[in-house]
Amino acid sequence: MIGMFYLVKCASIILICTPIFFQIKVILEDLYVQKILTYHYTSQSQELAHKYDSSRMKVDHLDVKFGTNTYDPDPFSQLHNGNISRQEYPQKENATILMLVRNEELEGALESMRSLEDRFNKEYHYDWTFLNDVPFTTAFIMATTAMASGKTQYGLIPSEDWDRPVWIEDDKFTKCMKKMEEEDVMYGDSVSYRNMCRFNSGYFFRQELLMDYDYYFRVEPNVGYFCDLPYDPFKVLRERKAKYGFVISLYEYENTIPTLWDAVSDYIIEDDGKDVHMDQNHYGFLTDKSQIGRYLPATESNSDYNLCHFWSNFEVGDLNFFRSEQYLNYFNHLDSKGGFYYERWGDAPVHSIGASLLLKQDEIVHFDQISYCHPPFYTCPTSMYARLDQRCICDSENEYSIDIKPHSCLMRWWKNGSGKYFIKEG
Predict the structure, then answer these.
(1) Potential cystine with 95: which of 60, 173, 215, 287 (Cβ 3.0-4.6 Å)?
(2) What is the pLDDT of residues 320-367, one digit of tens each?
(3) Is-catalytic flag, 104?
(4) Which of 346, 347, 375, 316 is nearest to 111 (CA)?
(5) What is the pTM of this model?
Protein backbone atom coordinates (compact mmCIF):
# COMPACT_ATOMS: atom_id res chain seq x y z
CA MET A 1 0.00 0.00 0.00
CA ILE A 2 2.79 2.36 0.98
CA GLY A 3 4.71 1.42 -2.20
CA MET A 4 1.67 2.23 -4.31
CA PHE A 5 1.44 5.63 -2.59
CA TYR A 6 5.07 6.52 -3.45
CA LEU A 7 4.61 5.32 -7.02
CA VAL A 8 1.61 7.61 -7.49
CA LYS A 9 3.51 10.54 -5.92
CA CYS A 10 6.52 10.06 -8.21
CA ALA A 11 4.25 9.89 -11.24
CA SER A 12 2.66 13.16 -10.17
CA ILE A 13 6.07 14.83 -9.81
CA ILE A 14 7.12 13.63 -13.26
CA LEU A 15 3.95 14.99 -14.80
CA ILE A 16 4.50 18.37 -13.14
CA CYS A 17 8.23 18.63 -14.06
CA THR A 18 8.01 17.36 -17.63
CA PRO A 19 7.05 20.79 -19.15
CA ILE A 20 9.95 22.39 -17.24
CA PHE A 21 12.39 19.83 -18.63
CA PHE A 22 11.11 20.48 -22.13
CA GLN A 23 11.51 24.24 -21.63
CA ILE A 24 15.10 23.79 -20.44
CA LYS A 25 15.79 21.54 -23.40
CA VAL A 26 14.43 24.14 -25.84
CA ILE A 27 16.47 26.94 -24.21
CA LEU A 28 19.69 24.90 -24.37
CA GLU A 29 19.06 24.00 -27.98
CA ASP A 30 18.51 27.71 -28.83
CA LEU A 31 21.70 28.70 -27.04
CA TYR A 32 23.62 26.02 -28.91
CA VAL A 33 22.27 27.18 -32.28
CA GLN A 34 23.07 30.83 -31.43
CA LYS A 35 26.61 29.88 -30.44
CA ILE A 36 27.11 27.98 -33.70
CA LEU A 37 25.75 30.90 -35.76
CA THR A 38 27.78 33.47 -33.82
CA TYR A 39 30.98 31.48 -34.34
CA HIS A 40 30.17 31.04 -38.02
CA TYR A 41 29.47 34.71 -38.73
CA THR A 42 32.29 35.97 -36.49
CA SER A 43 34.84 33.78 -38.24
CA GLN A 44 33.49 34.90 -41.62
CA SER A 45 33.68 38.53 -40.52
CA GLN A 46 37.27 38.13 -39.30
CA GLU A 47 38.20 36.38 -42.51
CA LEU A 48 36.76 39.19 -44.63
CA ALA A 49 38.28 41.90 -42.42
CA HIS A 50 41.79 40.52 -42.92
CA LYS A 51 41.38 39.09 -46.41
CA TYR A 52 43.21 41.97 -48.07
CA ASP A 53 45.79 42.75 -45.38
CA SER A 54 48.70 41.60 -47.55
CA SER A 55 47.47 43.72 -50.44
CA ARG A 56 47.09 46.78 -48.22
CA MET A 57 50.63 46.41 -46.96
CA LYS A 58 51.97 46.28 -50.52
CA VAL A 59 50.17 49.39 -51.82
CA ASP A 60 52.65 52.11 -52.70
CA HIS A 61 52.06 55.61 -51.36
CA LEU A 62 50.35 57.39 -54.23
CA ASP A 63 50.23 61.10 -54.84
CA VAL A 64 46.42 61.21 -54.99
CA LYS A 65 44.11 60.25 -52.15
CA PHE A 66 40.42 59.38 -52.04
CA GLY A 67 38.07 62.32 -51.56
CA THR A 68 35.09 61.80 -49.30
CA ASN A 69 32.73 62.70 -52.16
CA THR A 70 34.31 60.66 -54.94
CA TYR A 71 32.00 58.66 -57.21
CA ASP A 72 34.78 57.08 -59.19
CA PRO A 73 35.06 53.41 -58.17
CA ASP A 74 38.76 53.45 -59.18
CA PRO A 75 40.10 56.98 -58.78
CA PHE A 76 43.64 55.78 -59.44
CA SER A 77 42.85 54.30 -62.86
CA GLN A 78 43.58 57.45 -64.83
CA LEU A 79 46.84 57.91 -62.97
CA HIS A 80 47.86 54.33 -63.70
CA ASN A 81 46.90 54.78 -67.38
CA GLY A 82 49.06 57.85 -67.68
CA ASN A 83 46.18 60.34 -68.14
CA ILE A 84 47.07 62.33 -65.00
CA SER A 85 50.65 63.45 -64.35
CA ARG A 86 52.15 62.98 -60.92
CA GLN A 87 52.75 66.06 -58.80
CA GLU A 88 56.29 67.39 -58.95
CA TYR A 89 58.04 67.27 -55.58
CA PRO A 90 61.20 69.13 -54.52
CA GLN A 91 64.47 67.35 -55.14
CA LYS A 92 65.39 65.14 -52.21
CA GLU A 93 68.77 64.64 -50.59
CA ASN A 94 70.15 61.20 -49.79
CA ALA A 95 68.61 61.24 -46.33
CA THR A 96 66.21 59.52 -43.94
CA ILE A 97 64.13 60.49 -40.94
CA LEU A 98 65.25 58.35 -38.02
CA MET A 99 63.32 57.27 -34.92
CA LEU A 100 64.51 55.02 -32.10
CA VAL A 101 61.24 53.86 -30.57
CA ARG A 102 59.50 51.10 -28.63
CA ASN A 103 56.33 49.32 -29.70
CA GLU A 104 54.46 50.71 -26.71
CA GLU A 105 55.33 54.25 -27.82
CA LEU A 106 53.22 53.94 -30.96
CA GLU A 107 50.80 56.73 -30.06
CA GLY A 108 53.65 59.16 -29.39
CA ALA A 109 55.43 58.07 -32.56
CA LEU A 110 52.31 58.75 -34.65
CA GLU A 111 51.90 62.14 -32.99
CA SER A 112 55.46 63.11 -33.98
CA MET A 113 55.07 61.70 -37.48
CA ARG A 114 51.81 63.52 -38.08
CA SER A 115 53.38 66.82 -37.01
CA LEU A 116 56.53 66.45 -39.15
CA GLU A 117 54.61 65.15 -42.16
CA ASP A 118 52.26 68.12 -42.05
CA ARG A 119 54.99 70.68 -41.47
CA PHE A 120 57.66 69.28 -43.79
CA ASN A 121 57.75 65.79 -45.17
CA LYS A 122 54.48 65.78 -47.13
CA GLU A 123 56.36 67.94 -49.66
CA TYR A 124 59.44 65.68 -49.84
CA HIS A 125 58.42 62.11 -48.98
CA TYR A 126 61.70 61.27 -47.21
CA ASP A 127 62.04 57.71 -45.96
CA TRP A 128 61.31 56.89 -42.33
CA THR A 129 63.68 54.49 -40.56
CA PHE A 130 62.59 52.95 -37.25
CA LEU A 131 64.97 51.17 -34.88
CA ASN A 132 64.15 49.03 -31.85
CA ASP A 133 66.00 46.57 -29.63
CA VAL A 134 63.07 44.13 -29.99
CA PRO A 135 61.10 43.25 -33.14
CA PHE A 136 58.40 45.70 -34.17
CA THR A 137 54.82 44.47 -33.96
CA THR A 138 52.59 44.22 -37.00
CA ALA A 139 50.33 46.87 -35.48
CA PHE A 140 53.25 49.30 -35.15
CA ILE A 141 54.42 48.67 -38.71
CA MET A 142 50.96 49.07 -40.22
CA ALA A 143 50.14 52.27 -38.32
CA THR A 144 53.45 54.03 -39.02
CA THR A 145 53.44 52.94 -42.65
CA ALA A 146 50.01 54.48 -43.05
CA MET A 147 51.16 57.74 -41.46
CA ALA A 148 54.33 58.15 -43.55
CA SER A 149 54.39 59.84 -46.95
CA GLY A 150 57.67 58.15 -47.84
CA LYS A 151 58.97 54.61 -47.60
CA THR A 152 59.20 53.03 -44.15
CA GLN A 153 61.75 50.50 -42.93
CA TYR A 154 62.21 48.76 -39.60
CA GLY A 155 65.46 47.59 -38.04
CA LEU A 156 66.24 45.29 -35.12
CA ILE A 157 69.29 46.52 -33.20
CA PRO A 158 71.85 43.74 -32.62
CA SER A 159 72.45 42.88 -28.98
CA GLU A 160 76.14 43.75 -29.26
CA ASP A 161 75.20 47.31 -30.26
CA TRP A 162 72.57 47.77 -27.56
CA ASP A 163 73.25 45.78 -24.42
CA ARG A 164 75.77 46.47 -21.69
CA PRO A 165 79.24 45.30 -22.84
CA VAL A 166 80.75 42.33 -21.02
CA TRP A 167 83.76 44.32 -19.80
CA ILE A 168 81.59 46.49 -17.54
CA GLU A 169 82.06 45.07 -14.02
CA ASP A 170 78.79 43.83 -12.55
CA ASP A 171 79.44 44.74 -8.91
CA LYS A 172 80.80 48.19 -9.71
CA PHE A 173 77.93 48.89 -12.08
CA THR A 174 75.31 47.82 -9.53
CA LYS A 175 76.86 49.96 -6.78
CA CYS A 176 77.16 53.01 -9.04
CA MET A 177 73.58 52.69 -10.24
CA LYS A 178 72.27 52.27 -6.67
CA LYS A 179 74.23 55.36 -5.58
CA MET A 180 72.75 57.43 -8.42
CA GLU A 181 69.27 56.20 -7.53
CA GLU A 182 69.78 57.26 -3.91
CA GLU A 183 70.98 60.69 -5.09
CA ASP A 184 67.89 61.02 -7.27
CA VAL A 185 69.88 61.40 -10.49
CA MET A 186 67.58 61.57 -13.51
CA TYR A 187 67.31 58.03 -14.99
CA GLY A 188 70.09 57.06 -12.57
CA ASP A 189 68.44 53.71 -11.86
CA SER A 190 67.73 52.81 -15.51
CA VAL A 191 69.74 50.24 -17.45
CA SER A 192 67.75 50.72 -20.66
CA TYR A 193 68.36 54.48 -20.63
CA ARG A 194 72.09 53.85 -20.38
CA ASN A 195 71.87 51.40 -23.28
CA MET A 196 70.04 54.02 -25.32
CA CYS A 197 72.58 56.77 -24.57
CA ARG A 198 75.54 54.58 -25.51
CA PHE A 199 73.76 53.38 -28.65
CA ASN A 200 72.93 56.92 -29.76
CA SER A 201 76.48 58.03 -29.00
CA GLY A 202 78.37 55.38 -30.89
CA TYR A 203 76.22 52.84 -32.71
CA PHE A 204 73.12 54.29 -34.37
CA PHE A 205 75.08 55.25 -37.49
CA ARG A 206 76.45 51.70 -37.86
CA GLN A 207 73.02 50.14 -38.38
CA GLU A 208 72.64 48.34 -41.70
CA LEU A 209 69.50 50.24 -42.73
CA LEU A 210 71.41 53.55 -42.57
CA MET A 211 74.47 52.53 -44.56
CA ASP A 212 73.20 53.87 -47.90
CA TYR A 213 72.24 57.30 -46.53
CA ASP A 214 74.33 60.44 -46.11
CA TYR A 215 72.07 62.39 -43.73
CA TYR A 216 69.59 61.72 -40.93
CA PHE A 217 66.92 63.77 -39.15
CA ARG A 218 66.39 62.49 -35.63
CA VAL A 219 62.81 62.40 -34.37
CA GLU A 220 61.53 61.15 -31.02
CA PRO A 221 58.01 60.17 -29.90
CA ASN A 222 55.81 62.91 -28.44
CA VAL A 223 57.50 65.88 -30.10
CA GLY A 224 55.96 68.57 -32.27
CA TYR A 225 56.80 71.14 -34.93
CA PHE A 226 54.88 74.39 -34.45
CA CYS A 227 55.64 76.00 -37.83
CA ASP A 228 56.09 74.91 -41.44
CA LEU A 229 59.77 74.25 -42.07
CA PRO A 230 60.83 77.06 -44.45
CA TYR A 231 63.56 74.97 -46.06
CA ASP A 232 64.90 71.44 -46.34
CA PRO A 233 67.47 71.10 -43.50
CA PHE A 234 69.24 68.32 -45.42
CA LYS A 235 69.73 70.68 -48.35
CA VAL A 236 71.08 73.37 -46.00
CA LEU A 237 73.71 70.95 -44.66
CA ARG A 238 74.77 69.84 -48.11
CA GLU A 239 74.95 73.30 -49.65
CA ARG A 240 76.84 74.73 -46.68
CA LYS A 241 79.07 71.64 -46.45
CA ALA A 242 77.99 71.44 -42.81
CA LYS A 243 77.93 68.26 -40.74
CA TYR A 244 75.56 68.93 -37.84
CA GLY A 245 72.47 71.02 -37.14
CA PHE A 246 70.57 71.78 -33.94
CA VAL A 247 67.64 73.85 -32.66
CA ILE A 248 67.84 73.96 -28.83
CA SER A 249 70.90 74.23 -26.59
CA LEU A 250 70.71 73.71 -22.81
CA TYR A 251 72.87 73.01 -19.76
CA GLU A 252 73.40 69.37 -18.84
CA TYR A 253 72.84 67.96 -15.34
CA GLU A 254 76.36 67.63 -13.99
CA ASN A 255 75.47 64.77 -11.66
CA THR A 256 74.90 62.58 -14.74
CA ILE A 257 78.40 63.25 -16.14
CA PRO A 258 80.76 63.96 -13.19
CA THR A 259 83.89 62.65 -14.97
CA LEU A 260 82.96 63.14 -18.64
CA TRP A 261 85.11 66.25 -19.07
CA ASP A 262 88.08 64.45 -17.47
CA ALA A 263 87.76 61.80 -20.17
CA VAL A 264 87.45 64.49 -22.85
CA SER A 265 90.53 66.30 -21.54
CA ASP A 266 92.52 63.05 -21.67
CA TYR A 267 91.33 62.54 -25.25
CA ILE A 268 92.45 66.05 -26.28
CA ILE A 269 95.89 65.46 -24.78
CA GLU A 270 96.26 62.06 -26.47
CA ASP A 271 95.05 63.45 -29.80
CA ASP A 272 97.81 66.06 -29.68
CA GLY A 273 96.33 68.19 -32.45
CA LYS A 274 95.80 65.37 -34.96
CA ASP A 275 91.99 65.68 -35.12
CA VAL A 276 91.23 68.48 -32.64
CA HIS A 277 92.21 71.89 -34.06
CA MET A 278 91.61 74.54 -31.43
CA ASP A 279 92.01 77.40 -33.88
CA GLN A 280 89.12 76.16 -36.04
CA ASN A 281 86.66 74.43 -33.70
CA HIS A 282 84.05 75.46 -31.12
CA TYR A 283 86.01 74.83 -27.94
CA GLY A 284 84.98 78.26 -26.68
CA PHE A 285 81.31 77.29 -26.80
CA LEU A 286 82.06 74.42 -24.40
CA THR A 287 84.18 76.39 -21.94
CA ASP A 288 82.94 80.00 -21.94
CA LYS A 289 81.58 80.87 -18.47
CA SER A 290 81.49 84.64 -18.84
CA GLN A 291 78.44 86.81 -18.30
CA ILE A 292 76.46 87.33 -21.50
CA GLY A 293 74.05 90.21 -21.27
CA ARG A 294 72.25 89.78 -17.97
CA TYR A 295 73.12 86.13 -17.62
CA LEU A 296 75.91 84.13 -16.06
CA PRO A 297 75.82 80.36 -16.69
CA ALA A 298 72.64 78.95 -15.16
CA THR A 299 74.64 76.35 -13.25
CA GLU A 300 78.18 76.23 -11.89
CA SER A 301 80.28 73.29 -13.00
CA ASN A 302 83.23 71.65 -11.28
CA SER A 303 85.34 71.52 -14.44
CA ASP A 304 86.28 73.72 -17.37
CA TYR A 305 83.20 72.41 -19.19
CA ASN A 306 80.30 74.84 -18.87
CA LEU A 307 77.78 71.98 -19.40
CA CYS A 308 76.36 73.49 -22.63
CA HIS A 309 75.13 70.95 -25.15
CA PHE A 310 72.89 70.70 -28.20
CA TRP A 311 69.61 69.01 -27.27
CA SER A 312 70.03 65.93 -29.40
CA ASN A 313 66.39 64.83 -29.44
CA PHE A 314 66.34 67.17 -32.45
CA GLU A 315 69.40 66.91 -34.64
CA VAL A 316 70.08 66.76 -38.34
CA GLY A 317 73.46 65.34 -39.16
CA ASP A 318 75.90 63.94 -41.67
CA LEU A 319 76.20 60.20 -41.08
CA ASN A 320 79.63 60.22 -42.68
CA PHE A 321 80.91 62.48 -39.90
CA PHE A 322 79.86 59.96 -37.27
CA ARG A 323 81.32 57.11 -39.32
CA SER A 324 84.64 58.95 -39.65
CA GLU A 325 87.83 57.74 -38.03
CA GLN A 326 88.01 61.02 -36.11
CA TYR A 327 84.63 60.61 -34.42
CA LEU A 328 85.15 56.88 -33.80
CA ASN A 329 88.50 57.59 -32.09
CA TYR A 330 86.75 60.13 -29.88
CA PHE A 331 83.84 57.80 -29.04
CA ASN A 332 86.03 54.76 -28.41
CA HIS A 333 88.16 56.76 -25.98
CA LEU A 334 85.09 57.83 -24.01
CA ASP A 335 83.51 54.39 -24.15
CA SER A 336 86.63 52.77 -22.71
CA LYS A 337 86.17 54.81 -19.51
CA GLY A 338 82.86 53.06 -18.73
CA GLY A 339 81.03 56.31 -17.98
CA PHE A 340 77.94 55.34 -19.94
CA TYR A 341 77.26 52.74 -17.22
CA TYR A 342 79.27 53.68 -14.10
CA GLU A 343 77.78 57.17 -14.45
CA ARG A 344 74.95 58.11 -16.82
CA TRP A 345 76.57 59.91 -19.71
CA GLY A 346 73.98 61.16 -22.18
CA ASP A 347 74.31 61.16 -25.95
CA ALA A 348 73.53 64.90 -26.05
CA PRO A 349 76.77 66.07 -24.37
CA VAL A 350 78.75 63.33 -26.13
CA HIS A 351 77.49 64.43 -29.57
CA SER A 352 77.83 68.11 -28.70
CA ILE A 353 81.38 67.88 -27.39
CA GLY A 354 82.43 65.66 -30.29
CA ALA A 355 80.97 68.00 -32.90
CA SER A 356 82.34 71.10 -31.17
CA LEU A 357 85.86 69.66 -30.99
CA LEU A 358 86.08 67.97 -34.38
CA LEU A 359 84.11 70.24 -36.72
CA LYS A 360 85.08 73.60 -38.15
CA GLN A 361 83.19 76.74 -37.17
CA ASP A 362 81.03 76.75 -40.31
CA GLU A 363 80.19 73.04 -40.10
CA ILE A 364 77.58 73.36 -37.33
CA VAL A 365 74.28 75.07 -38.15
CA HIS A 366 71.70 76.52 -35.81
CA PHE A 367 68.32 76.10 -37.53
CA ASP A 368 67.01 79.46 -36.41
CA GLN A 369 63.61 79.26 -38.13
CA ILE A 370 62.56 75.73 -37.19
CA SER A 371 60.02 75.73 -34.35
CA TYR A 372 60.33 72.55 -32.34
CA CYS A 373 58.79 71.29 -29.11
CA HIS A 374 60.09 68.59 -26.81
CA PRO A 375 58.10 69.08 -23.60
CA PRO A 376 58.50 71.19 -21.62
CA PHE A 377 60.61 73.44 -23.86
CA TYR A 378 60.13 74.70 -27.39
CA THR A 379 61.44 77.25 -29.86
CA CYS A 380 59.34 79.79 -31.73
CA PRO A 381 60.38 82.47 -34.26
CA THR A 382 60.45 85.91 -32.65
CA SER A 383 59.51 87.59 -35.93
CA MET A 384 55.75 88.02 -36.30
CA TYR A 385 56.12 87.92 -40.09
CA ALA A 386 57.96 84.59 -39.85
CA ARG A 387 55.22 83.15 -37.62
CA LEU A 388 52.54 84.21 -40.10
CA ASP A 389 54.51 83.08 -43.12
CA GLN A 390 55.21 79.65 -41.61
CA ARG A 391 51.68 79.13 -40.17
CA CYS A 392 53.02 78.95 -36.63
CA ILE A 393 50.94 78.02 -33.61
CA CYS A 394 53.38 79.10 -30.89
CA ASP A 395 53.96 82.04 -28.57
CA SER A 396 57.55 83.33 -28.61
CA GLU A 397 56.95 85.15 -25.30
CA ASN A 398 55.87 82.07 -23.35
CA GLU A 399 58.08 81.03 -20.43
CA TYR A 400 58.77 77.67 -22.10
CA SER A 401 60.01 79.31 -25.31
CA ILE A 402 63.61 78.58 -24.48
CA ASP A 403 65.90 80.53 -26.83
CA ILE A 404 66.86 83.49 -24.65
CA LYS A 405 66.01 82.17 -21.21
CA PRO A 406 68.73 81.91 -18.51
CA HIS A 407 68.85 78.10 -18.81
CA SER A 408 69.47 78.25 -22.57
CA CYS A 409 72.99 78.08 -24.00
CA LEU A 410 71.97 79.64 -27.30
CA MET A 411 73.42 83.03 -26.47
CA ARG A 412 76.78 81.35 -25.79
CA TRP A 413 76.49 79.78 -29.22
CA TRP A 414 75.84 83.18 -30.79
CA LYS A 415 78.97 84.48 -29.08
CA ASN A 416 81.30 81.51 -29.61
CA GLY A 417 79.74 79.69 -32.56
CA SER A 418 78.39 80.95 -35.84
CA GLY A 419 76.71 84.11 -34.55
CA LYS A 420 73.04 85.09 -34.75
CA TYR A 421 71.40 85.21 -38.16
CA PHE A 422 68.47 83.80 -40.13
CA ILE A 423 69.20 81.31 -42.86
CA LYS A 424 66.04 81.12 -44.93
CA GLU A 425 66.85 78.78 -47.79
CA GLY A 426 64.89 77.85 -50.93
Answers:
(1) 215
(2) 999 999 999 999 999 999 999 999 999 999 999 999 999 998 999 999
(3) no
(4) 375
(5) 0.79
